[in-house]
Amino acid sequence: MKKAMSDKDKMYDKMQQTIGRLFYPLHNSIAWIIKTMEELQQKLDYTEWIIQRQQYHITKSEKAIKSFVVDIDRQFTTATDRSSLQCVDRHWHQPAEMRSADGYVRRYQWSCMMYGNGD
Fold it and tell me: Chain-centre distance of CA 73, in angstroms?
């Protein structure tokens, strides 16, 4: 009976060794694949989060740029309206008497006295 038990134990050990040689490398490969898949999923989730964040910032930036352009357009329109109302003359900032014909003659005479008449 002892011999039968020892033969049975030997056969069991041999079978365990065979299973171990086949199972553990396969199990290790499957575990590595599962671990790699989980890491890739984490990278994908992170990349998706970054893309969503960038899209949010792009949308926010586009809105800011649009409002900035609208403000500039509004200011430009207002400035254009103001300049067309004030005067077409390049001396619009001077008092009215300086812009008159007499004022022009006086300025011309003064500049001739100061700088010569150009002859």
Answer: 24
pLDDT, averaged across the chain: 76
Please report the pLDDT score of residue 39 as a whole number.
95
3-class SS at 4?
Answer: helix
CB atoms near residue 15 (< 10 Å):
10
> pTM for this structure?
0.40
Output the CA–CA distances (angstroms, integers) from residue 87 to 20, 81, 99, in the order listed. 99, 11, 10
Cα distances (angstroms) measured from residue 12 to each of 6, 16, 22, 30: 10, 6, 15, 26
pLDDT of residue 46: 95
| 33-to-39, 40, 43, 44 alpha-carbon distances in Å | 10, 10, 15, 16
Phi, psi for 94 (deg, rounded to 5): -85, 160
**Rounded distance between C-alpha atoms, residue 78 and residue 76, angstroms:** 5
